[in-house]
Amino acid sequence: MAAPSVFRLLHRVLPRLGTQRARLSGGWVPPAQAPDANSFVARTNTCGELRAAHVGQEVTLCGWIQYQRQGLFLVLRDFQGLTQLVIPQDEWSQVQTDRSAVRHVASEFLRYIGIPLQAHSHVRKLLSNAPVESVVRVTGIVSSRPPGQENAKMPTGDIEVKVETAEVLNFCKKLPFEIKDFIKKSEALRMQYRYLDLRSSQLQHNLRLRSHVVMRMREYLCNHHGFVDVETPTLFKRTPGGAKEFLVPSREVGKFYSLPQSPQQFKQLLMIGGLDRYFQVARCYRDEGSRPDRQPEFTQIDIEMSFVDQAGIQRLIEGLLQYSWPEERGPITTPFPSMTYEEALAAYGTDKPDTRFGMKIVDISDALRRWDVRFVQNVLSYPHGTAKAICIPQGVRYLKNKDVESLKEAAKSQFNQEIVDVICRPDGSLKSLLTKFLGEEQQSELKQVLNMQVDDVVLLAAGDHKRVCSALGSLRLESADLLEAAGVVLRDPTALHFLWVVDFPLFLPKEENPTELESAHHPFTAPHPLDTDLLYSDPAKVRSQHYDLVLNGNEIGGGSIRIHDAEQQRFVLEKVLKEDSEVLSHLLEALEFGAPPHGGIALGLDRLISLIVGSPSIRDVIAFPKSFKGRDLMGNAPEYVTPEELEPYHIHVSWPVAETEAKKN
Amino acid sequence: MAAPSVFRLLHRVLPRLGTQRARLSGGWVPPAQAPDANSFVARTNTCGELRAAHVGQEVTLCGWIQYQRQGLFLVLRDFQGLTQLVIPQDEWSQVQTDRSAVRHVASEFLRYIGIPLQAHSHVRKLLSNAPVESVVRVTGIVSSRPPGQENAKMPTGDIEVKVETAEVLNFCKKLPFEIKDFIKKSEALRMQYRYLDLRSSQLQHNLRLRSHVVMRMREYLCNHHGFVDVETPTLFKRTPGGAKEFLVPSREVGKFYSLPQSPQQFKQLLMIGGLDRYFQVARCYRDEGSRPDRQPEFTQIDIEMSFVDQAGIQRLIEGLLQYSWPEERGPITTPFPSMTYEEALAAYGTDKPDTRFGMKIVDISDALRRWDVRFVQNVLSYPHGTAKAICIPQGVRYLKNKDVESLKEAAKSQFNQEIVDVICRPDGSLKSLLTKFLGEEQQSELKQVLNMQVDDVVLLAAGDHKRVCSALGSLRLESADLLEAAGVVLRDPTALHFLWVVDFPLFLPKEENPTELESAHHPFTAPHPLDTDLLYSDPAKVRSQHYDLVLNGNEIGGGSIRIHDAEQQRFVLEKVLKEDSEVLSHLLEALEFGAPPHGGIALGLDRLISLIVGSPSIRDVIAFPKSFKGRDLMGNAPEYVTPEELEPYHIHVSWPVAETEAKKN
Questions:
Q1: A340, A367, B254, B527: which has the highest count of C-beta atoms within 10 A?
Q2: B604: which chain A residues are within 8 Å (Cβ-Cβ)?
């Protein structure tokens, strides 16, 4: 065992030099660009960075005890990795004589400056008795592992550290679950002890990657393209239609702030204020009650530019993602393909198509129009009447009868859409409720239009265009899940299919009253330049300058060119949407004072990062997420407060009991 | 006048190339590191970047009309500067023959691809009639200004742009105030039309500098020192003593979220979660009602590290500020000096001393102890009895009698502290109420202790140490203001006096009941290592590991090493502070599961930036600040909401009238 030389010991007690801290000589030096994770602290190295080149160096490590083996070995963990420590077995007196002289000088020196040198027996006792997950600091000598004992799976697997001194900085009591990646624990337990779950390599990786990606985005926006990071208020007032905004009582009786769903108004006002290029990693709030995989607070990369058009924003975002995309998931190619909303709806039945696989919706109206089947003709005669189908390749082999039945039921219950299934028998003939209406020629035409092969299953729907497409789009995704569950490789998990969806309708009929219109996205979206005249004559037909960014079937961003003309904005609010424009009077007035043409976008950061790390839930990329009921299970929020605490805000709680009693009186 | 060549016109209609956009050749190229502010948009240059080297180039600029002179010139403004435009005076037909041939080809080409070339008369009409602050896009040729007409004060003063085509993108109606830096406008008007005030060069500069400084901080923390940017929740629950926290009603009856004053608990939990190095540019909330220059939401640079001590955090912050400090205000030297709380109180009467000037508090107890004056002896005999003074150099010359009187009154009303003034007459004798008690020798001793010169004014106080120091510290600052108002240069406005104040008391007597203790800062602060034993015997005497960072007399940051031992934390909460520790049970439990030693700091970003830009108010470094009453004067927040909007949150407003009626019944 190597004993620390006086020189090394002197080195250890030298004052720390911050960023200029002298690197231990002769060893592995991190790349010039890599951050120094050991500056300003009491360690020399992290638990992930020691290599064969460090052998012979004295190092100080801090970390958590991952496990301990029979008082001989201990594995120490920190955020960067694991290092094997060798617990000293020899006693103080057992070291060789020539070295003990050195040790004597060293120990005298250390005692003089107040650092006692420890006996090995003491170190052994400390390290052998400390429970798993206790926090320790050790100093020792990096040594090669004995031949044959190297661990190629471990980045530090060539070395071990022979411990000279040790200190238990904090003990750990019995854990509710082990900090090992392979240990399964319930979501509720993970949330309650979130600080323990954060020690897992998965969450460490997710949060660090998130930080890194955001930092790269900032570099791209600020340092490369002159964007200004501006913080906008989160205490504002309710926006029209802001039914999902949290309220914050103020000290003025009856008046409330509101936590905005996005900085939309502020970023437009910044453009009017001449900021030219704005971005913010913006905290946003949305009170939707209980919804799976939604969070009451979430983060978006919020961007706005003046003097820009739709293509400008799209190229910006492509560059942004390319620049910030982590190497482990890259590279990505740009420009991203583009598809109109109508195309997406027709081919995929959704405005966020997953283009990683085929099974597109096929229009079979023309084929069916030639059939002499009354109810088909009937459906096709309606204004938006259509007949469409998807073909599930080899569906007979991979889908059970009950799968097909449940698909049909789902279409019925979710979309009120009847589905007819058609199967291609081994002899090429079709099996379906429909076949009795079809001649051989018609069956052949159907097979050809759908490119149907033996054992394929076709799901066919006729009716209103949007409903048929939506139902088949949903069945397409459910069928894909079923095929994959049955072992078919349909979607490459490493594939990255980015897609711009453009030319959305500007307005949609209100669900509760289809004769009235509401904004498809928000009332500030500009109409498509080719449709401006339609705005005043037939607003329902106007396409917008809204664009969505879709990745593998997930909407990861959306934005638009905004209305910059006050009169047009007023017309949209008052005449088309029939909204009270008073609540937006500040924005309408601002548009009259020289508002530049402008547009922007917001990327959903939580979703984007979860797609990058391949996590099914955004909760895995948020440090302290809320449960799907909006609760913090660790700190127990929200919580009751006393009536005295409510007093300054002039509110009180309407308890159900109180209500009942009030009714009685 | 130069006519655009076909080549240039072709160039103009080429598709934009994003970041790879071809720079106009032969001209000024921004430094490789400078951001490209013209990527993705329709302009070729900003209004601040054209120089003599650009002469002959065709450029497209977008901006606001700053002013227009007699239909001849127009000054265009954007975020980067001003450019003079020459409005074309010649008609279409007036251009020279050789050029008109070129123009004909060009115009035919442009008409072919759909871009009409404008007649100069049309351009002149457009630009002459557009009101100030209208938004225009112009294309033209950069030309040298005629000799003698260069403007050396204007960065673009060597050139002007001869406009060829122009488009008014938006008109501006009559403004509530002019966008000129020299125009004075009321704070309320500026706040109501914040988007217009944002166009001022001062606010543009402040917000851009803020963005730049924060970006540099991020580079230092993330890229240089391995910090992880982690977002923590803002919807949490009330913390003990969190009387200033905004409440957010939840959909669960009677339960409220709370908007935290800082991410304190979360950052400690992140350390327990092994994150090791955390930072966040964190939005924080504090409901203090009406207080000048406080904002209900504000931003702090929030930092926490594991395995660090006080010196480690201090060196980190010094490096951070040095790295991010804007060149225009730099350089700053490190390390910053340090002073204990007791030293600061004794010499400056405050925990945030302005060390840019002297006039320090001098202890004259020893001198006075030798005086045979009963009331002085009486005061000095109390446990914390003291006599102290400050000396205002040349006070007789610069302070009026009423100034001295108002200083004395302020000490009386704010600190209940009597002040005696002493003046040094031209003959060296002292004039004071006290002199009748003093012999010549005693007067001489007083002059010597205070280094008193002819015409100096001394303010003298005797009584309780802390009260005397606080009163004199306050008078010191007020006297400095008076001296400066009288023309004395006391504090160099460019000086940067950073100072660490350390060794604060851990606890303070509660104001309402001085026999009980409360945390001087917060209950998670660790005791000073030398005072740990005192914690259990005489907690009032314990110093803490809290540190404040002071700049020119302003607290710009504060932090501490935290308690990482669960038992110690429990003792502080339950035995010393007598708090219900149940509400912090998650944190106490977390400390038991292997919490590493850790500490951190938070810098007040708004105040820091306002000091950097030399602005008296933090409102000048916030894009959309609230008024001192917490109101958004532009959007009119907070605002009334309907009872229906309150229903999901099970609350209703206690209107004063309703209260009155309730009392009647």
A1: B527
A2: none
CATH code: domain of residue B24: 2.40.50.140
Pick from A40, A215, A229: CB nearest B308: A40
Q: Are residues A161 and A295 in the same domain?
A: no
- Predicted confidence at residue B113, as pLDDT, reads 58
Is residue A51 located within the same domain as residue A154?
yes
Reduced to 3 states (helix: H, G, I; strand: E, B; else coil), residue A459 is strand
Is residue A490 situated within a structural domain? Answer: no
Q: Chain A partners of B191 at a C-beta cutoff of 8 Å?
A: none
Q: How far is B338 from chain A (nearest CA, A)?
A: 17
**Radius of gyration, alpha carbons of chain B:** 33
Domain at A416, CATH number: 3.30.1360.30
Mean of all residue pLDDT scores within chain B: 89
Same domain? For A54 and A143 the reply is yes
- The reply to whether A383 and A276 lie within a common domain is no
- pLDDT tier for residue B24 given thresholds of 50, 70 and 90: very low
Q: Which helix (H) or strand (E) holds A516?
A: none
How far is A262 from A232, CA to CA, in rounded Å? 10
Q: Which of A583, A605, A621 is a domain's end point?
A: A621
Distance CA A622, CA A611 (A): 13
In a domain, A263, yes or no: yes
Measured CA to CA, the distance from residue B4 to residue A325 in angstroms comes to 42
Distance CA B611, CA B613 (A): 6
Q: Per the CB < 8 Å rule, is B207 touching A193?
A: no
Kindly report the CATH number assigned to the domain that includes residue A617.
Answer: 3.30.930.10
Answer yes or no: do B204 and A622 touch at CB < 8 A. no
Q: Is there a single domain that holds both residue A525 and residue A604?
A: yes
Q: Which of residues B170, B204, B229 is at a domain's end?
A: B170
Give the type of residue at B90. Answer: D
Which pLDDT value is given to residue B490? 93
Query: For chain B, how far is it from start to end, CA to CA, in angstroms?
Result: 87
Q: What is the ipTM of this complex?
A: 0.91
Q: Nearest-CA neighbor of A217 among A550, A618, A603? A: A603
Distances (CA, A) of B430 to B347, B373, B438, B444: 24, 17, 10, 9
A104 shares its domain with A212: no
Partners of B654 on chain A (C-beta within 8 Å) are 253, 650-652
Q: Which of A9-18, A128-137, A522-531, A616-625 has the lowest mean pLDDT?
A: A9-18
Q: Are A18 and B315 in contact (CB under 8 A)?
A: yes
The total number of structural domains in chain B stands at 2
Same domain, A86 and A160: yes
Q: Please spell the DSSP secondary structure of A283-336, one letter per residue.
A: EEE---SS-TT--SEEEEEEEEEES--HHHHHHHHHHHHHHHS-GGG----SSP
Candidate ranges A96-100, A345-349, A363-367; pick with highest mean pLDDT: A345-349
CA distance B149 to chain A (A): 29
Question: Tokens representing B29?
Answer: 């190229």
Question: Phi, psi (5° rounding) for residue B148?
Answer: 90, -15
The first and second tokens of residue B77, run together, are 């403004």
Cα gap A309→A303, rounded to integer Å? 13
Please state which of the ranges A187-196, A334-343, A367-376, A524-533 shows the lowest mean pLDDT: A367-376
The DSSP secondary structure of B165-203, one letter per residue, reads EEEEEE-B---SS---TT----HHHHHHTHHHHTTSHHH
Task: Name the DSSP class of A544.
Answer: B
**Domain assignment of residue B361, given as a range:** 357-485
Is there a domain that residue B649 lies in?
no
Does residue B586 lie in a domain region? no
Lookup: tokens for B148: 């003698």
Are β-strands A73-78 and A58-69 bridged in parallel, bridged antiparallel, or unpaired?
Answer: antiparallel
Distance CA A91, CA B24 (A): 77
Distance CA B171, CA B126 (A): 11
